[in-house]
UniProtKB/TrEMBL annotation:
It holds the Pfam family ABC_tran. The lineage of its organism: Bacteria, Pseudomonadati, Pseudomonadota, Alphaproteobacteria, Sphingomonadales. Part of the ABC transporter complex HmuTUV involved in hemin import. Responsible for energy coupling to the transport system. Residues 4-238 form the ABC transporter domain. This is ABC transporter ATP-binding protein. InterPro entries: AAA+_ATPase, ABC_transporter-like_ATP-bd, ABC_transporter-like_CS, P-loop_NTPase. The keyword Nucleotide-binding applies. One of its GO terms (molecular function) is ATP binding. The keyword Glycosyltransferase does not apply. It comes from Sphingomonas agrestis. SMART domains: AAA.
Length: 258
């Protein structure tokens, strides 16, 4: 199990400040959704947690500054599913998923029995066993998204950051992915998902972090974060918020005139 803590984190890309003074703590066993409008800084914040963009402030993984960790050490602890990744090499699906084992392999090492088992399990969980011999560059967008999720699962890291894991997926597979992420958290993993679908976020996430113009403006349970007032302020919409019962729903009524 791992813990992750952000202390007044800021990210500046070129002349633009994308993330401002972000502070939050993430615990194992929790599925946290990071939500907010387009351009709010959600993906940049996720990339900062993986030391993929320069940042100010501190990001601590098990109380160690991520800046002090090697890329391999960080990759073994935190798996990453980036959004909209383009595939350039015509690898078959099984080999592509197998790349998730690279952080565990030394120079010139070969895939062993433990690695093969991890790859098989990841493909099964992401529902891509039937694609194992297909060339990844020839897959549909939804198939490719599930294969890349399998690659992240193959790492078997105690933490997972998934950036828009529902993009390109049909409704059935969206449900499968959210249930999978929730199961990962229930098994003790620290799971962070950048999401646009507020109903999915409300239904599956234990906690939400609402980001607007690079700032964390709300952090708490879905009921605490997805209030009509917050949706009006951040998204500029009027919405019906129904979070009681087993089937929470956020229904957009229209642009707010307030």
């Amino acid at each position: 199990m791992v813990s992750l803590r952000l202390e007044t984190v800021g990210v500046k890309l070129g002349r633009r400040i994308v993330v401002r003074d972000a502070s939050a703590a993430f615990a194992p066993g929790t599925l946290t959704g990071v939500v907010g409008p387009n351009g709010a800084g959600k993906s940049t914040l996720a990339r900062a947690m993986l030391a993929l963009v320069p940042h100010s402030g501190r990001i601590l993984l098990d109380e160690a500054d991520i800046a002090s960790l090697s890329r391999a050490a960080l990759a073994r602890r935190v798996a990453y599913l980036p959004q909209g990744q383009t595939l350039h090499w015509p690898l078959d699906v099984e080999r592509l998923v197998g790349l998730g084992r690279l952080p565990h392999l030394g120079p010139m090492s070969r895939i062993g029995a433990e690695d093969a088992a991890a790859i098989e399990r990841a493909m099964e969980r992401a529902d891509v066993l039937g694609l194992r011999d297909r060339i990844a560059t020839e897959l549909s967008g939804g198939e490719r998204a599930r294969v890349l999720l399998a690659r992240a699962l193959a790492v078997q890291a105690p933490a997972l950051i998934a950036d828009e894991p529902l993009a390109s997926l049909d409704p059935g597979h969206q449900l499968d992915v959210m249930e999978l992420l929730r199961d990962e958290a229930r098994a003790g993993a620290l799971v962070i998902a950048v999401l646009h679908d507020l109903t999915m976020a409300a239904r599956y996430c234990d906690r939400l972090v609402l980001v607007d113009t690079g700032t964390i403006v709300a952090d708490g349970t879905p009921a605490e974060v997805l209030t009509p007032a917050n949706l009006r302020t951040v998204y500029g919409i009027d919405a019906r918020v129904e979070l009681g019962g087993d089937w929470p729903a956020i229904t957009t009524l229209g642009r707010s005139r307030a």
